[in-house]
Structure formats: C-alpha cells, structure tokens
C-alpha cells in the first residue's frame, strides 16, 4: 500500500489496495493511520458492491443507520444515494461537514462514484486544522471557549417541499440540534481545528445575532482559501474516505444536466477512539 500526498496539508491518493477484499488488521490499521495523517484518502478502480461498501465502513466504526432526508440503496438503509441530473441540483454545493446538527457528529464518510459525468462534478475538501493554524493569535483567543448551535440548516428546503411549514416544524423536533465548540480538538492527534460550517451552523452562543453573523461570515470566507484545500476529479469506481471531524467538503455543481450518481456510508463512531 502506497500513500501519495496531493498537498502538504490535506489529501493523499492510495495505491496497491483492494477495498472490496477482506482486509487484514494491519492493512486496516495502515488505512486508519493514513486517514488520520492526511484527513482524506482517494482510491481509483474500486468496484465495491453494497455489502463490501458497508463492510469497509464497519471496519472503522459504527455506521449511521440512515440519513433523515436522502434516499438509500434498496436493502441497505445505511448506504445513502446521492443523485443529481437534468434540473435536479444537489444541496451539497456549499462548504459543510456531515450531520453536525447531531449531538455527536459523525467520525467519517466513505463516498463511492457510481456514475460520474465526463466533465465537472469534482469534490473539494478543506483542512480545518490548517484553517485554524492560519488564524491570527487574536482570533484564536477570541474564539476559544465559544460554542455554536447547529441544526438541519439547508435540509429545511427538503422538508418544505415534502410537507410545508408543518413538516419543517416536525423535523426540527425529530432531527434536533447540537451545540459544539467553535474550536475543537481532534481526539487522536490533539490538533485544534475550526468547527463551524456554512450549511448547519446557525449562531454562536453568547453573541448577539449580528455579531455572530459577522464572525461566522469571516470564518466561512477564510475556509474558502484554496491553500487549505484539495480537489478530487471523480471517475466511476473512485472512492474517497474522509475524517469528518477535521475537514469540510464541497461538491461542485458544474455538470448539469448530466448525471452524477454517488453512494455514501457515514461512520458515526471511531472504533479506535472508543477503545
């Protein structure tokens, strides 16, 4: 197994491994160590079927039982279908971390390219530890100890289409929200990282709404700087695994009306941390 770094801050392409095979513990440990080091890993020519996709995710930790909005693969509640074509634009074309509206946000995700367009459809990832490191000492000091409220954010539109305002109200109760530190510490590396995102962070606790909006907008603009990012060009059967705690990602919608079909499994808990 060989890891080829794509930038000095984030991302590596992994060669010499078949993710669909029953991997020995030393290979799984090497994958995990690579994920922790590079934050997102990329693989080519990985013909994973649903049971293999799920088994790979389960080797890292407890998988998410199902997404509150997205459809799933028939017979596999934990494998989310992400499909866009014609005039059906995705709702993932902004910088975000997955499921931060939960009390315990997800550890990682494994995304597979099922049918990708010939042009466009890349995904970008950004290192939140690199973003934190680039902040001035004043910003770091001011943000330390603050907490922010996260809720279902852009998914409100999905519920609105399904059942109007009543559906949104019910979903807010069902899906819930989470309160998380603005600056968090990675449980394995000890690296500090920025822990707010444009999709799901609503406001910073103990700040007025105006002050909170001003701070968050500054931080969101900071995340967009390209030197913190890696960009991946998808092919059919490409796979990406990322540490959702310390990264954000952005799916570029520059391929419509062409079809882009992806499948994702989210891993809620990090088995190695739980031990």
Describe the structure.
- The protein is α+β, with helices and mostly antiparallel strands and 275 residues long.
- It has one domain: Clavaminate synthase-like (Double-stranded beta-helix, 4-Layer Sandwich).
- It has helices at 25-38, 50-58, 128-134, 137-143, 156-175, 209-223, 271-274; strands at 2-5, 12-15, 40-43, 72-73, 76-84, 108-115, 123-127, 147-150, 178-181, 183-185, 192-194, 201-204, 229-232, 239-243, 247-251, 260-267.
- The longest helix has 20 residues, at 156-175.
- It is globular.
- The two termini are 25 Å apart.
> Which stretches of 5+ consecutive residues score pLDDT under 50?
none
Q: Name the CATH superfamily classification.
A: Clavaminate synthase-like
Spatial strand arrangement across the major sheet: 1-2-3-14-6-16-5-4
Q: Identify the overall geometry.
A: globular
Indicate the radius of gyration in whole angstroms: 18 Å
